[in-house]
Amino acid sequence: MVYRRTHQVVKRLAARRSAILAAARETAAEGGMAAVQIAPVAVRANVAAGTVYRYFPSKAELISELIAEVSRDELAAIRRAADAAPGPSSALAAAVTTVAVHTLSQRRLAWGILAEPVDVDVSASRLASRREIAGEMAARIDAAVRAGHLPAQDTALAATALLGALHEALVGPLAPDNLDDPVKMRDAVQTVTLLALRAVGVMDARARGLVVQQTLLPTTKALVGA
């Protein structure tokens, strides 16, 4: 007879896997990717180290899946914010703002996902996550171009440039180190969103209006502590 897992067993296994990933995420948010080691993650998840290995046979697989999970969450947040916007330009502004807010609200984790050196190869997961988010940004720029709100342009290149600018400005080595303050965080989000909108061709007055519109949204206000 072939053994088939019951629904309860499947749920329990999925919950344990989620607990391990949550523990890895909390560890990375507190101590960076260097802190994500099997033993301390197991302790935080309240499982044995061997259990972690059953779900993730190596540290590289654990970190790669962590990167993928964080990126999926960010992508879902970007899509929710953009889809709720009243038009293509507002959707683009919402997408940019969401990236900025997510980056600033978890800077150490964001740096770990993006570029923090680790002693295992997670380059494939990092590249995949960047491609997905850049692709979503490109789709929003393309929608605004097709609606006549932006000039014709290489939307894929524009999206990549915007994403790079956001990350470099907010979490890269040159990023300010005082962005934990809610007021400074709000100002930084407004500044980079305005810069991004201007860069793809939104007229200044319109860009400023879109930035104000984003700042007034309840979700944005809550995230930046306004």
From TrEMBL:
Keyword hit for Signal: no
Keywords on record: DNA-binding
Domain of life: Bacteria
Domain HTH tetR-type: 14-74
DNA-binding interval(s): 37-56
Statement: the UniProt record of this protein carries the keyword Methyltransferase: no
Gene Ontology molecular function, alphabetical: DNA-binding transcription factor activity; transcription cis-regulatory region binding
PANTHER family: HTH-TYPE TRANSCRIPTIONAL REGULATOR PKSA (PTHR30055:SF226), HTH-TYPE TRANSCRIPTIONAL REGULATOR RUTR (PTHR30055)
Name listed for the protein in its UniProt record: TetR/AcrR family transcriptional regulator
